[in-house]
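Q: Here's a chain of 230 amino acids. Please give me its 3D structure as tokens.
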Amino acid sequence: MVGIAGDIPAHYPDPGKVVVTGTPVRPGFYAKTRKEARQALGIPEGKPLVLSCWGSLGAVEMNRRMADFLALCVEDGTPFCQIHGTGKWYFEDTVNALKAKGVELADYPALDVRAYIDDMPLCMAAADVVLCRAGASTISELIALAKPAILVPSPNVTGDHQTKNAKVLADGGGAVLLPETDCTPRRLYDEVRRLLDDPDRRRRMGEAVAKLAPPDATELILDTLLSLAG
């Protein structure tokens, strides 16, 4: 069973035959330290980095809110760097929404808005806070890198399973769970500022999230399969 450590599958008819392994994470996520990743991305020394992405294809409603969020960041004097992935369908709409708010991205090098984040392992390694959905792969990447996150689960998934995923991290102290219905741009911005202003809290969140999965899901899956085959 691919899942999160501590997720005891008691509802299975024979729980003793179920092994919770965690989800394998690409080796690239372990390739760079935070310092190395920041240097590779050219993040200025001493300036925190926020990473935001609402799925590989993006999310129209969240991109609308992110335009307001980024405008708040500009109004606040861009106190942090941000890499935001809009998804390929929403890049132009997001850029145009920012222009309508008087934000020309060329004037604000701290704000990196992309259609697609093709170097996600590097960006996540460099990030101080991650804003994202709560799909299984994303959750596993956050756990692998012990990254504090603000999770806004997609409300449009089967069985509301992203909220269940997010609750595991939030209940363990490793993330902030913010339902999309409550996720106004101002609320999200204020949550980010509170986290960035409290490095001790971020450290505790990172420590908490790191405890939620086996250290090497791929090896555990392989060992389990070899054991069964033997």
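Q: Can you summarize the key feature?
A: The first strand starts at residue 49 and ends at 53.
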